[in-house]
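Lecture 7 notes: from sequence to structure.

We start with a single chain of 111 residues. Read the sequence below before looking at the structure.
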Amino acid sequence: MSRTSHTAFFGDAEHVFDLARPEIVRELEAVTSTGIGALVTRVCETRQFHHADLEHVLRLGLVGGGLDAKTAARLVAHYLPLMPLAEAQIVAMGALGALWFGVKTSDEATA
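Now the structure, written as tokens:
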């Protein structure tokens, strides 16, 4: 597990979300028309986000976590509409928080 990955139950199983690859951050900024710092603020702090922000964070987080783009898009399209918005936001916040602050790896937790 990387220092920027977040594991959460989404839809049908536990999935890894990781937004740290530069090409994923650039894509996230492009599709949301927002810099990463402002996106983290609006999703995690102010709750002034667009529904599409959550869609893109979840989809790209799944891709960064190892799923192919088609599978990630299918999961988000299928499961996001079935979730309470707050639940989807919590998963997105976990992925963005892992990108922003990092997480302890199992090696760090036992040291």
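Strands lie at 5-10, 13-18. Keep this in mind for problem set 3.
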